[in-house]
Design brief:
elongated; about 130 residues; 4 strands; 3 helices; four-stranded mixed β-sheet; about 20% strand; alpha+beta
């Protein structure tokens, strides 16, 4: 398996510092504007590495967090607001058992008391002829 290229994005005064790392080599650049512009800058740095080392898998990180990068980048591409949540402000999630709520598997839907009558062969043929016309 090939070693990955890691790209870390850090906000810096209305822009981004983009750091690309691979196999002990580090390239750093600054991109003004939004995260999409920073990604374009990263792609240029990645192409520089690829010219020497060949194409490698790339992992994009926002301050070291791949999930945060994905959420921020995709939100920005879609034109949606994105705000990084502070883990200290996020309330802990309690499992359902601890919250006192019983957990039960989904029940299959109940059968109706009166099923629909079967279609007679002649009626089925009439319906087919009408549809063909």
């Amino acid at each position: 398996m090939q070693d990955a290229v890691y790209v870390d994005y850090q906000e810096s005064g209305g822009g981004w510092v983009v750091t690309v790392k691979h196999d002990g080599e580090e390239l750093v650049d600054r991109a003004d504007g939004d995260l999409v512009s920073a990604r374009d800058c990263a792609n240029t740095l990645i192409a520089t590495l690829a010219a020497v080392h060949g194409h490698r898998p790339v992992v994009h990180l926002l301050d070291g967090d791949a999930v945060a990068y994905s959420a921020a980048y995709l939100s920005e591409r879609a034109g949606l607001p994105w705000k990084r949540e502070d883990p200290a402000e996020t309330p802990a999630v309690e499992p359902a058992e601890a919250a006192g709520e019983p957990t039960q598997p989904d029940q299959p839907p109940a059968e109706p008391d009166h099923p629909a009558p079967p279609v007679q062969a002649e009626e089925a043929g009439d319906a087919t002829e009408e549809q063909a016309v």
